[in-house]
């Protein structure tokens, strides 16, 4: 589908009439208060053929990067705009990762329900022990024991973890590799996995938030997942 000026105007009118009126309740009462109404809008977006604009068909609309950027200008007029089109962070990034690097089994188990809007996801990389923005500075480790990865670590500012179906964890699988960019891998961890603990939700500008609109501190205490949950090749977390 090509993004036309008429479609942009139609999206803007839809947002102004249906979404913007929900913002006062969202700001006053939180995400859970507006989620039923947002779920209805998501179904309407699907029915209009606007679902997942940047993903290729048959997953989404198949817009180019520049076309999606133009559409995002409209969606970004509301903090809830991308959510009702299922292009909110971190889910859209995780969908793109799974689409490009996931195995057929991973796509069926994790990508399909995520793309359908049936579940949400999270991405865990930042660690409280390592302030700053250098992503190679990690301590969370995954050790392969038989057919399972065993993960120990500490993450925070994991957006949207509360209520999610799974989290992609960036962790060290080859901590002694001479190339620091070949030490880490990305591993899919179900959010209800034993040993994965939400310590707290971290306030941002005084707001704790709820569900997708929240940020979690996590501990991974001997979390075990199948070796098949590795995304891409071992040690290629930064390449992903």
Strand content: 15-25%
Low-confidence blocks of residues: none
In N-to-C order, the SSE pattern is HHHHHHHEEEEEEEEE
What is the helical fraction, as a range of percent?
A: 25-40%
Name of the CATH superfamily of the largest domain: Butyryl-CoA Dehydrogenase, subunit A, domain 2
Whole-number total of structural domains: 2
Radius of gyration, whole Å: 19 Å
Global outline:
globular
Number of strands: 9
Give the helix tally: 7
CATH class placement of the largest domain: Mainly Beta
Largest sheet: 5 strands, antiparallel
The name CATH uses for the topology of the largest domain is Butyryl-CoA Dehydrogenase, subunit A, domain 2
Give the averaged pLDDT, no decimals: 96
First-last Cα distance: 27 Å
Characterization of this structure:
The protein has 7 helices and 9 strands, in the order H-H-H-H-H-H-H-E-E-E-E-E-E-E-E-E. It has 240 residues and is α+β, with helices and mostly antiparallel strands. The protein has 2 domains: 5-88, Acyl-CoA dehydrogenase/oxidase, N-terminal domain (Butyryl-Coa Dehydrogenase, subunit A, domain 1), CATH 1.10.540; 121-231, Beta Barrel (Butyryl-CoA Dehydrogenase, subunit A, domain 2). Strands 2, 3, 6, 7 and 8 form a 5-stranded antiparallel sheet that branches. A hairpin with a 2-residue loop joins strand 7 and strand 8. Helix 1 runs parallel beside helix 4, helix 2 (23-29) runs antiparallel to helix 3 and helix 6 (91-101) packs antiparallel against helix 7 (104-115). The two termini are 27 Å apart. The mean pLDDT is 96.
